[in-house]
Amino acid sequence: MANSRDEALPPDIAPQIRLIRGRRVLLDFDLAALYGVTTKRLNEQVRRNPERFPEDFVLSLVNHEFMSLRSQNATLKTGRGAHRKYSPLAFTEHGAIMAATILNSPRAVQMSVYVVRAFVQLRQMLASNAELARKLEALERSVATLDASTRKQFDQVYEAILGLMSPGLRKPQ
Question: Where are the domains of the chain?
Answer without folding.
Answer: 14-74+84-127
